[in-house]
Amino acid sequence: MHLFITDSDFSCTNRIFQYLLGFQPTLWAILLDDVSIVILLDGRYVEKTKNIDEDILRQRVWQLGLKINIVQIEEFLPWIIEQLGDFRELSIEENIAIKYVKEIQNSYPDLSIQTKVHEISEKRRIKNKEEQEYIIKAVDVIDEVFLYILSLAKKWELCWKTELQVQGIIVSKIFELGGESESFDSIVAFWENSAIPHHSSWDTLIGNGPLLIDMWAKYQWYCSDFTRTFWVWDKTELHGKFTEILDIVAKAHEASIIVYNKGMTGTELNNMSRAIIKDAGYDELYTHGLGHGVWLDIHEEPKISKTWKEILSEGMVFTIEPGIYLPGEFWVRLEDIVFLQRGKLNKYSKVPLILQN
């Protein structure tokens, strides 16, 4: 038996619920074995359960004869513990809060508990045609949002706005263009703030200098992910250094897509991109992997990094996002989503890597 728990109270969310049920509950559970799936929810979700597509659910767990049981209950853990009397083994999704593992173990000290990724998580790395179309639509939305932001920059209308004000424009445009929400809080980082990994947009005023915008939108719950770094307003004495770094990162980005060959691992692709930045003398300032999978969560497998040695497979969708990080100055990162289709990497973003303001 395998146990999934979604728990926003402990910052553990599991998009498997969204994937299987079509909605994302909080603090509830799914039990799955070879013949049945038991979905434990409270009264808040009764109406939503009427919209569960049972055929899709069965397809996504690869068990077409699966018996589906929906149990309305106020507290799921006592119910689960009671059911485990006849079981000797239980596997639990690895991102579960340790609180629940301990409570189950205390009730059944002889129960063998493994925390691991279920095959649903592994197989969902491959996106079917419908899922890819949703992600492409999310890419289209965020492209249009960015092109609007760029149009403001060209008219000098970003100058003297704060990072937070620009983030507000991004969120508003996502909804206006048919997106459902941000996949995560957008990062608007001006000048030295862009050199802070995962900077939180703040009241910094935008003026002359480099601006990094890392943003994402959802469409039908599927995520996009996108980053550009460009120069705003008048060029200062550091513009030449910025342009040099931007050109190197753009070359690494473009080469990552061109050099892909069938059978390549995530590590091999990462290393080929990194070689370009290393040859330019900036290897120590490239402080992250080349990319990550994108799905219902903004960060998924596969990992395009020095540690992910699995082969990249047809149907995978992931980011290409090389970057050079100069502490105290700026960080240039260029990011697009690519789709592994018919043996090559395709990207659908219409936004150039190097932008003219």
List the helices and strands and how they pair.
Blueprint: E1 2-6, H1 16-21, E2 28-32, E3 36-41, H2 46-49, H3 54-60, E4 67-72, H4 76-83, E5 89-93, H5 98-107, E6 112-116, H6 119-123, H7 129-154, H8 163-176, E7 187-190, E8 209-215, E9 218-219, E10 222-223, E11 226-232, H9 239-258, H10 266-279, E12 291-293, E13 300-304, E14 317-320, E15 323-326, E16 330-333, E17 336-341, E18 344-347
Parallel strand pairs: 1-5, 3-4, 5-6
Antiparallel strand pairs: 1-2, 2-3, 7-8, 8-11, 9-10, 12-13, 14-17, 15-16, 17-18
Helix pairs in contact: 7-8, 9-10
Short note summarizing the structure:
This protein has 10 helices and 18 strands. The chain is of the alpha+beta class. It is elongated and about 70 Å long.
Question: How is this structure best described in words?
Answer:
- There is one protein chain.
- This protein has 357 residues and is of the alpha+beta class.
- The protein has 2 domains: 2-123, Creatinase/prolidase N-terminal domain (Creatine Amidinohydrolase, Chain A, domain 1), CATH 3.40.350.10; 129-347, Creatine Amidinohydrolase (Alpha-Beta Complex).
- The protein is 32% helix and 24% strand.
- The protein is built from 10 helices and 18 strands.
- It has a 6-stranded mixed sheet with strand order 4-3-2-1-5-6, covered by helices on one side. Strands 7-8-11 form a 3-stranded antiparallel sheet, sandwiched between helices.
- The N and C termini lie far apart (57 Å).
- The model has no long low-confidence stretch (mean pLDDT 93).
